[in-house]
Design brief:
Length: 385
């Protein structure tokens, strides 16, 4: 995945030459409100090499679901196709935590070392509170080869060694390990598997068709993801190696790989989740924690001056996209660049999922998300009546 400015330039230069050809008119089906600027969307999908897309637009009572052609699978997506949405999982995790806080079952000020098994023996956890994990201000960074550590069943007490770089609350440093520790906290607190906790307190109350594991889902309904660059025919991934391991029992020393980015969910269910967060947590939250996720905590800094973070929620202030703030989250994993966003001023929603696309970035915002959001909030949705 390109990260630095130079790598992004090289990646984008190679994209037209080395990636698979995307049809100039890839949109195959539109359900609900007709698109007014479909040609502009086709241009955006083609430009970003977006394949196997499932998009949802909502404005007021009107909804449109759009599905595009894939270049690497015969699966034709619909509103019930599962997508692994990577870091969009963090929105679900934060909403779940807000609900548990609202019920008095969690305290955002709780010391993490007291919530985790063997936590008091781990120097890296000193002074970290639960809200630091939710806002990426814990001072933790990710260890090299985090997925490999999870697959080798390395306890978090070992994986975390050397990952503490800053004092809690001092700087923003995106940490999948830090967010993953929330899963360990939940399992330790409830003595249930993290999958069961999500099902009981989030998925079932909101009637979401979702799971933190791929092993329990019908694999033929999961959109495979493939890297567009470098592209290798037949290398699409439906379920990750970690996702094939059932989460049948709690293991708070080992289950730090789920709450940061492992959720599988359908397009229609992700819409329901996004509507709940947009609408102040209704029907889950009372007024006390209704806007907890949206609270501005910290800015990304010079690397992405248009981005800041709340609790499990990305905040975008970029006039290329909208005159108002845009809330939501994006997800990068194995070649996809997903997004679930809403515009503060209008409440309009955009969800964009895919089976692979350009991973180029503008700062820390995926250019695919930038382009699709600009099309949705600037071009298409303002034309709906």
């Amino acid at each position: 995945m390109p990260t630095s400015r130079v790598k992004n330039l090289l990646y984008r230069a190679a994209l037209p030459v080395l990636s698979p050809s995307i049809p100039k008119n890839p949109v195959r089906r539109v359900i609900g409100h007709p698109l007014i600027t479909e040609k502009k969307l086709s241009f955006v999908l083609h430009r970003n090499h977006i394949t196997g897309a499932a998009l949802c637009l909502q404005s007021g009572q009107e909804t449109s679901m759009i599905f595009s052609q894939s270049v690497h699978t015969d699966l034709v997506a619909d509103e019930k196709t599962y997508y692994r949405v990577a870091s969009i999982t963090k929105m679900a995790t934060a909403l779940l935590c807000a609900y548990l806080m609202d019920q008095g079952l969690l305290d955002p000020e709780s010391p993490v070392a007291e919530l985790l098994p063997d936590g008091k023996t781990v120097e890296e956890l000193c002074d970290i509170r639960l809200h630091h994990l939710l806002s990426h201000t814990s001072g933790l960074t990710d260890p090299h080869g985090l997925e490999g550590l999870l697959l080798k069943r390395t306890p978090y007490t070992e994986a975390i060694k050397g990952c503490r770089k800053y004092a809690p609350g001092e700087v923003f440093r995106y940490s999948n390990l830090g967010f993953g520790l929330i899963g360990c906290i939940l399992e330790s607190h409830f003595n249930q598997s993290v999958e069961e906790i999500y099902r009981q307190y989030l998925f079932q109350p909101l009637k979401l068709d979702a799971s933190l594991e791929g092993a329990s889902l019908p694999e033929d309904r999961i959109m495979p993801v493939i890297r567009i660059l470098p592209y290798h025919v037949g290398s699409g991934i439906r379920v990750t190696r970690l996702g094939r391991l059932p989460i049948s029992h709690p293991d708070p020393l080992l289950h730090y790989g789920y709450t940061a980015g492992s959720m599988y969910i359908t397009l229609s269910s992700l819409l329901q989740l996004t509507v709940c967060i947009r609408d102040h947590g209704s029907p889950l939250l009372s007024s006390r924690y209704s806007d907890y996720m949206k609270q501005h905590v910290i800015s990304y800094g010079d690397v992405s001056p248009t981005l800041s973070y709340g609790h499990g929620l990305l905040i975008i202030r970029d006039r290329r996209i909208s005159e108002s703030a845009v809330y939501g989250h994006q997800g990068f994993a194995y070649g996809c660049v997903d997004g679930a966003f809403w515009e503060e001023s209008s409440g309009n929603i955009l969800i964009s999922l895919n089976g692979g696309c350009s991973e180029a970035r503008s700062g820390r915002l995926g250019i695919a998300n930038l382009d699709v959001s600009r099309w949705a909030f600037r071009k298409e949705l303002p034309l709906w009546k």
